[in-house]
Amino acid sequence: MMRASRLAIPILLTALAAGSAAHAAPASPFRGLEGSWTGGGVLSTSDGNQERLRCRAAYDVGGAGEQLRLNIRCASDSYNIDLSSDVAYRGGEISGQWTEASHNASGTIEGRASGNRIEAQARGQTFSAGLSLTTSGRRQTVSIRPTGTEITGVDLELSRR
């Protein structure tokens, strides 16, 4: 049986993907994301340990720029993540679904975009995670705080390739 803390990472990364849309024009916030991004950060646990994460993401924008499909892979010494998600933007709100293949997990994400910042909530069956994200030019910074897991925080930085 997979521990809930292992499943928290996919939800956190989906939150990152959905949240990164906040920096583009309000009419089509996903347009500025199309392409490849790389980066990483630090995952912190309740026992005080930290692990470095390395990530690669590909964003595909559809429709009139209101649909986003994400594929992301991240790795650390203890975690491997193979995540995909479909997220929609309508009237300042973001919402969508995610799946994580290596852990057979799924869930939802919803939040609100305002300027270059987003606040969102990602949910799975046994936990949730709050997200705060800011995008500035070709860089994104993300702070994620899950509840119900041994993971206490994830801090990431991505750059457009």
Distance between the termini: 37 Å
Q: Provide the low-confidence segments as ranges.
A: 19-25
What is the percentage of strand-forming residues? over 45%
Tally of DSSP helical segments: 1
The class by helix and strand makeup works out as mainly beta
Assign an overall shape: globular
General description of the model:
This protein is mostly beta strands and 161 residues long. 10% of the residues lie in helices and 60% in strands. The chain is built from one helix and ten strands; from the N terminus they run αββββββββββ. The protein has one helix spanning 4-19; strands at 35-45, 50-62, 67-75, 80-90, 93-100, 105-114, 117-123, 128-136, 139-147, 151-160. It is globular, with a radius of gyration of 14 Å. The termini are far apart.
Which keywords apply here?
161 residues, mainly beta, ten-stranded antiparallel β-barrel, 1 helix
Fold topology:
Elements (H helix, E strand, L loop, with lengths): L3 H16 L15 E11 L4 E13 L4 E9 L4 E11 L2 E8 L4 E10 L2 E7 L4 E9 L2 E9 L3 E10 L1
Antiparallel strand pairs: 1-2, 1-10, 2-3, 3-4, 4-5, 5-6, 6-7, 7-8, 8-9, 9-10
Compact description:
It contains one helix and ten strands.
